[in-house]
Structure formats: C-alpha cells, structure tokens
Write a structure and sequence with these properties.
Elements lengths: L5 H19 L8 E7 L10 E4 L5 E3 L5 E5 L3 E9 L2 E10 L4 E3 L3 E2 L4 H11 L26 E4 L1 H6 L5 H6 L16 E4 L2 E4 L2 E2 L2 E2 L11 E8 L3 H4 L8 E7 L7 E9 L3 E11 L6 E12 L8 E13 L4 E15 L2 E7 L23 E16 L4 E24 L2 E28 L2 E20 L4 E6 L11 H7 L7 E3 L2 E12 L4 E14 L3 E3 L5 E2 L2 E17 L3 E12 L14 E14 L4 E19 L2 E25 L2 E16 L15 E10 L8 E10 L2 E2 L7 E2 L2 E11 L3 E8 L18 E9 L1
C-alpha cells in the first residue's frame, strides 16, 4: 500500500506558512519603533519579560537573549517592563520618525536564577524555547542546526497539568500514538518507527518503565536516524526521546503539589532547592513524588514512588561538577495484551464487542519494578571558546512481571499467562570536547567525543506460559484469573541467560560557517560493537549469539538563513544502524542493519523569537533487514528493505503576551519493500498515517486577573493496522482536553478535564485507553 500524496501535502503546508510570513516580518526601511535589552539584577539576559508602551496596544516579550523590539509611530511614551514575581518598571521614551530607536539596557531587581524559576508562572515565553545543548551536543541555534527536533518545555508541561509521562509525550508536536502499557515503558511512533524514552540529559539509560515527570525540566524529541551522535541503543530510525532533568539553582525555593483525579487517582510531589554555603558554590535540589492509580477498568492499579536528589559544586571559575540520582519503585498489575484475533468477519478492533471497562486480568497478578540511576557531569572550560564535558551514567534496574495474553476466537476468548524477570546494569561514559575557532575567515565549531557503553543483562522466564481458560467474553460476567492456580501451573525450573555486550565509539562534528548565514555540518561516527562473550545460559554454560561488528555512521547538513535570525532553509543526510546477529546459509555473518535519511525544509523564528515553526519532508530507507530466505524457509538472508517518508509541520510559541499556541501535524507513509512473501507493500502494524495535536492557552499577565488562564486542545490520530498483514484495523480518534488555572508566585490551582468527549478509543496494540478523567491540582510555593 504505497501512498504518494506527501509532496502535495508538503507543498500546501509550505505555501500556507510562506503566505503568513509577511504578516510576521516587516521591512526595516521606514519603520519606526524602539528596541533594547532587559537584564536581570546580576547582568544576565532576562527572557519572557513583557515590555510595552503604556496605554497603547504596542507590546512584546523579550527573547532568549533579553532583546525586544516594538514597532510604533513616532511620539512620546511611557515604557513599562513587567514580569510576574519581579517589580514593574516604567520610564519615559521618545520614538523619532527617523528609525527604530535604541535605548540603554534595562535592569530588573531579580537575579537570573529567580527569573528562571518565575518564568513558568507567567507561561509567557518558555513554550517556544528550542535552545538545547543536547541535540547537537554543542551550543547550536535552532536556525543553524539542520536536525529537526521538537520540545515540550517545562512551562508547557505545567500549563497542561501533566502528571504522567505519556501525557507529556502527547504534548509534543508531531508525536503520534503514545501508548499506555501498565507497568511498562510507554512508547510513541516517530516517522513510523517505535521510539521510547531511553535518554536522560543526552546519555543512554536502561530503564524498564517510564520515568516520573517530577524530575523533568523538558522533553526533547530528536527526529530521524541519529546514530552518528547517539549510537544504536535506545535510538529508533524515527528518532529518540531525551529527557532533560531539573538542576539545582542559586536560591532557596520549593514547591509542594497535590493532585486528585477520577478512578482513585492521587499524587503528591515535592521540589526543594537550596544553596549549601554562603558563596553559593554548592547547591542542592531534591524532587520526590508518590502516585496512586486504581485505573478505570475492573482490575488494574499502579503505585509508584520516586526520589531524585541532585548536587552541584563549582570547584573554581572554570570547573563545575553535577551529581544527580533517581530512585523509582513501582508496583502494578500484570499488563493485558491482545496476542491474537481470529474471529470470522472481524476487520476492526471495535467489532470484537469487547467490554471497554473489563481488563480480563486480575489484581492478584502483579509486578514490581526498581530503578536506580546515577549521573555525573564534570565541565571544565579551558577558555571562552573551548570546553570539556565528561558524562558518566550508571543505571541498575530489575523487575518481575507477568503478562496476560488475550487470544480472541469465534465467540470465545482464550487467556494465557507468562511471567519473567529482568535485571540490567549499564555503565555509560561519554567525554565531549567542543571548541569555537577560525581557520582563515571560516568559523568552525568542533565536537570530538568518545562513547563507551557496557550492559549486563540477566533474563529469566518465571515458569512456563500456561493456558488460563477459555470463555465466552460476550457475556456480562468474566471471572478474574485464579492467580494461585495459574502461578502453580506455570511453575518450572528457571533458566537464566546472561549477556554482556560492550560498545565503543568515537565521533567528530564540525559546523563550518561559510558566511554569517550559511553553515555546513560534517559529522562521522565509528562504532565497534563487541558481543563476543555472547549470551550464556547460566545453568548449562551454553553460549550463543557471539559476534562483533564495526559500523560507520556519517551525517551531513546545511542551513542557510534567507532572513537573518528569522528564516532558515535546511537539508540533511543522516544515518542510523542496528547490530544484528546471525549468518546466512553459506555461513556469512550478517552486517549491521542501517538506515539512510534525506530531509529538507524550512525553520522560522518569528515575532522576536517568540514563535518557532518547522516544516520538513523526509525520506528514510532501511537496508540490510534480515528476512526469510525464499529458497529455504529454514534459513535467513539479509536483503530486506523498508521505506518511510512523510511531511511534518509544527508551530510553537507566544503570539501575544499570555497567548500560547502549540500545533503539530505529521503525515507518514511507511511500507515494506523487500520482505517475507505476502508482506511486500504492506504498512507495518502500529503507526498511523496522520497525527496532529493542538494546544491553545491564554493567561492574563497583568491587572487584577494576573495569573488566571485557560487552555484547550487535544490529539488526533488516523486509523492504524493491528497486524502487518493489514487485515485488522484500529480506529482513529480525536481526544480533547481542557484546563483552567490560576498561577501566582505563591500558589497554583488547576482544574483539568482529559478526554472531554469521553471518547472510547484503543492504542495500536488493542488496549483500551483512559475515558474522561477530571483532575484537581493545587501547589504551594515557598
């Protein structure tokens, strides 16, 4: 099933945005107004500050560098500078009829760290904050970076009253199909491929479940095969998800937040920060959360506890150390999965007549998860232009969990149960040297990095997978699973396997500025994967899967700012890889599977940097896929291919002070090219062809209603296939959410309704999702 309408969609979106462009850009000639910069008390740029001309309609918000510019007729005015939590300032100004008037920098009475904490109160600016040190592993402006990425800022997550990681992922433009699996990692589809949240502060981490959002500052979704900088672990060909954690800052502050919701949901979080000495070189912060959820079905629950302390210390003017940890404990009911559908005439999940509010499982069958993660970062600045970051991450997680498998037959449901345990330890070390220098007249921004990852995984089935029962699920009563009997029937001698793969890599990136508008990016990674110890069965000593592979992963890109600091055209060529084990019938070892992407589009930073937009088209070809040998079904060959192509568009930012918008659309056409017989041209199970999200909010930024606001939006997903043969579909859905909030420097109050229309919908694997849910939240700040 090949679709060829994406170029037309791309053309329409691009034309629409380019048509709107003149509304945001004004010619400099003949324009009058005023421009300047707002600084904090300690002389640092103050973003998100409202600057206006009193008693007029002319106002704006400062960008990330504290700069502002207001277009207004010539005349005498009173300039007002206001920020929630900071003292308002006023000063007279005169705009001449000659040009835009520059005024001296304006200083607030609050420090940069204070403003950094207060900025989320107004929700005025940070919604569009795309500056990142992790996406390129160096400081590179969005308009200079040929990589496409989306961000859910802390302001957006707080504004939407996010209490779980799945909802946080759904807030990101262009992300589709966020799945909820009780007790497991949830995932999304990026460009047709499954992606999970396996990166923390730019480093790969092993974790069996979603992190709690209590320690999340922002979420970055880096799109496309990104093997050059991030390797293969945790990276799909569609992209990766990087969670940026909260860091200590240099003043005393704290927050206690409580939430109550439908279906027995309750949550309590604490965030406390304090300097540990008078000169504020030692800083400490701790985030903690406890959540309890009974679920909306007859059986189902989840209890989780998280604590995440972090400590930073400034050794001297050039060297900083950050140490942070996360501990998570969770207990949840065993997930229920649809493993088979063999019902005559059923071509749609809805036709199963399954009871939406029945889990078909049991609360007596549950699992326990424990995660410990330790992260250290040492930063040394040799000069203003050269810096070394050494990152070390150690994670240790283990869990024991069972699965209930549902196999639907004609007028009957067969239930199976199987359990297993997993204990994984991983150590990642990553030093990165970055420099900014010139060769002749050409500016170079250089990154040289090394990457080491060692994993130790022990896996063991906890007995046999057993048939629980067969029953007529169309009747009103479905008995819970007899846990004691099932566990007894499944008892068997445990078989534990151990694997210890190691990955070594080196990479280099150079961003060459040919002009102040044209940048070229050249990057290459060499990766050596060592699994020569293989996978060992501890009980017998048998070893299998012993192999090693070396791969090269290049990346090229270019950006050209057609309108300086506002509009940039970009193109990139990216690659990704995946290590695979096995041999063909002739004994030739398989090579790494790889993906190649060609992409191009336009990026815009408009309205003085408050509005960010990206429109792009991509084409990904996956090669060296292992498939069944057509001439020998018992053997495998490595000549399979898969293609994914599509269009993405997003707009994020603050149109007017207090008025935020986040909108995204993604069209994806993914299909098998060369694969097993009967699957050629089919679309893989799971990813929808169309996905969109929208969030619009407004909060008063001054006057008696200052801090009062409301938001409305939701997610759309088109239908998807439940299986690779494309014989059964999962219907599409539109989910609407709304929130009303009142936010001040001392407290925050919110009322949120998720799934307003009470839509009954399913994820791509056939699991029913949350119906309408109300949530009440209150936070106290100190």
């Amino acid at each position: 099933m090949k679709q060829h309408c994406q170029p037309y969609i791309f053309f329409c979106i691009s034309t629409f945005l380019l048509f709107l462009l003149p509304l945001f850009l004004q010619a400099e000639n003949g324009v009058t107004g005023i421009k300047g910069q707002v600084l904090s008390a300690d002389g640092k740029p103050a973003p998100g500050v409202t600057v206006g001309l009193k008693s007029t309609r002319y106002y704006t918000v400062t960008n990330e560098k504290g700069h502002f510019e207001i277009k207004a007729p010539a005349g005498s005015y009173t300039l007002t500078v206001s920020f929630i939590g900071a003292k308002s300032l006023e000063q007279p100004v005169v705009i001449t009829d000659a040009a835009v008037t520059s005024i001296p920098a304006i200083k607030l009475e609050e420090t940069a760290s204070s403003l950094g904490e207060v900025v989320v109160v107004g929700n005025q600016y940070r919604v569009a904050d795309k500056e990142s040190e992790y996406v390129a592993k160096m400081q590179l402006r969005n308009l200079e970076n040929p990589q496409v990425y989306s961000v859910a800022s802390r302001a957006l997550l707080q504004e939407q009253a996010i209490v779980d990681y799945v909802s946080a992922l759904r807030a990101i433009p262009g992300v589709s199909g966020a799945l909820i699996r009780p007790g497991y990692n949830s995932w999304v589809y990026l460009r047709g491929f499954v992606a999970s949240d396996n990166f923390r502060d730019g480093m790969y981490v092993d974790q069996g479940v979603n992190a709690d959002p209590v320690n999340t500052e922002r979420i970055e979704v880096i799109k496309g095969p990104s093997g050059t900088l991030f390797g293969a672990n945790g990276v799909s060909y569609g992209g990766l998800i990087n969670r940026v954690t909260k860091k200590p800052f240099d003043r005393r502050a704290g927050e206690i937040d409580a939430n109550l919701g439908s279906y027995g949901y309750s949550r309590l979080t604490v965030d406390v920060n304090t300097p540990l000495n008078e000169d504020k070189t030692a800083l400490f912060r701790v985030n903690a959360a406890g959540s309890w959820d009974n679920g909306f079905q007859d059986y189902g629950f989840k209890k989780s506890y998280t604590i995440a302390p972090s400590f930073s210390y400034k050794l001297d003017d050039r060297t900083d150390v950050l140490f942070s940890t996360e501990f998570l404990n969770m207990k949840a009911n065993s997930p229920v999965r649809v493993s088979g559908i063999d019902v005559p005439g059923v071509t749609n999940i809805n036709q199963l007549q399954r009871d939406y509010f029945k889990s078909y499982g049991s609360n007596k069958l549950s699992g326990v998860f424990n995660i410990r993660s330790f992260y250290t970062k040492i930063t040394h600045r040799f000069s203003d232009d050269w810096k070394l970051d050494v990152n070390v991450n150690y994670s240790d997680y283990n869990y024991e969990i069972g699965n209930v498998f549902l196999n639907f037959k004609k007028d009957s449901l067969w239930r199976y149960y199987g359990a297993f345990s997993n204990a994984t330890k991983s150590l990642a070390i990553q030093p990165n040297l970055t420099g900014d220098f010139k060769i002749g007249k050409l500016r170079n921004r250089l990154l040289v990095g090394l990457d080491y990852l060692h994993r130790d995984t022990r896996y063991s089935p906890l007995g046999n997978t057993v048939l629980v029962d067969g029953l007529d699920y169309t009747k009103s009563f479905v008995p819970p699973i007899n846990a004691a009997k099932v566990l007894a029937d499944g008892e068997a001698a445990a078989v534990t396997t151990l694997s210890k793969p190691v990955s070594y890599a080196a990479y280099v990136t150079d961003v060459i500025s040919l002009t102040d508008r044209l940048n070229v990016l050249l990057s290459l990674r060499i990766n050596y994967f060592d699994n020569k110890k293989g996978t060992e069965v501890l009980e017998t000593g048998e070893v299998s899967g012993d192999y090693d592979q070396t791969s090269l992963s290049p990346k090229f890109g270019a950006t050209y700012e057609v309108i300086k600091d506002k509009v940039s055209l970009f193109a990139n060529y990216q690659t990704g890889f995946n290590n695979v084990y096995g041999q063909d019938i002739f004994g030739i070892s398989f090579k790494p599977e790889n993906a190649r992407q060609a992409e191009g589009g336009v990026k815009m930073e408009l309205l003085n940097g408050r509005l960010s937009s990206t429109v792009n088209y991509y084409n990904i070809l996956v090669e060296n896929v292992v498939r069944q040998d057509p001439g020998n079904p018992a053997a495998s060959i490595q000549d399979g291919t898969k293609k994914s192509r599509g269009v993405e568009a997003e707009v994020t930012g603050t149109i007017l002070p207090g008025l935020n918008v986040v909108a995204g659309y993604a069209y994806n056409d993914i299909f098998f090219l060369k694969t097993n017989k009967g699957y050629e041209g089919k679309r893989p199970a799971g990813p929808p062809a169309h996905a969109a999200n929208l969030w619009v909010s407004y909060s008063f930024v001054k006057g008696r209603l200052n801090g009062l606001g409301a938001g409305f939006g939701g997610n759309y997903s088109s239908s998807a296939f439940w299986n690779d043969l494309n014989t059964i579909t999962v219907p599409g859905y539109t989910i609407l959410n709304a929130v009303v909030f009142y936010n001040t420097k001392r407290y925050r109050f919110s009322v949120k309704a998720d799934n307003l229309s009470d839509q009954r919908y399913w994820d791509a694997s056939g699991n029913p999702q949350m119906p309408r849910r109300l949530m009440l939240g209150i936070a106290f700040k100190f």
